[in-house]
Design brief:
Elements lengths: L1 E4 L5 H11 L9 H17 L2 E6 L2 E9 L4 E7 L8 H11 L7 E5 L7 H10 L2 E9 L2 E8 L6 H12 L4
Parallel strand pairs: 4-5
Antiparallel strand pairs: 1-2, 2-3, 3-4, 5-7, 6-7
Length: about 170
């Protein structure tokens, strides 16, 4: 499985995956809502904030994230690729592309929702903790928050080395 940047040329495959899982996501019930989501995905692609996981040429999963808002906006994995690392790979890569010196948030299903345990478990593994309850598209959700993360040691070490070099 490999992660790649979402681009307009794959929008049909992307939306085919969304169509398959849309019953699991409030707000995608109508053709109009699906068209609005398609336009949203294209905007995220233009900003470089859309990634997909591919396996044998098929789109196995997708993620949308906002650097500006420090938010994971949408994460979906095809049923046959769940519990095979696609979600972890997508979330990990999205977090690497975000400013993790700021909090990162995501809204997800409640614990007692059948869709909740797997999603919540994934976010917990990446350091997210439970936050406020709210509602999105008429469905109850809970925000998960990942606290600001210290800079990666290797990046810090390289920056420090560069800063210590004296002019010759």
């Amino acid at each position: 499985m490999q992660i790649e940047k979402g681009a307009p040329g794959i929008i049909d495959g992307w939306m085919a995956l969304v169509e398959r899982v849309r019953a699991e996501f409030p707000g995608l019930e109508t053709p109009q809502a699906m068209e609005e989501h398609r336009q949203t995905v294209l905007r995220f692609m233009e900003r470089g904030e859309a990634l997909c996981a591919r396996a044998d040429g098929d789109i196995a999963g997708v993620i949308l994230f906002s650097r500006r808002h420090g938010m994971i906006c949408c994460l979906a994995v095809a049923p046959e690729f769940r519990r095979r690392g696609a979600g972890s790979m997508l979330l990990g890569e999205a977090l690497r592309r975000m400013d993790c010196s700021r909090p990162v948030t995501v809204s997800t299903f409640l614990e007692d929702d059948p869709r909740g345990p797997a999603a919540r478990g994934l976010y917990r593994r990446f350091g997210f903790v439970e936050g406020a309850f709210s509602e999105e598209y008429g469905s109850p959700v809970q925000e998960f928050v990942r606290a600001p993360q210290p800079r990666d040691y290797e990046s810090h070490r390289n920056t420090t080395k560069t800063a210590r070099k004296s002019p010759t």
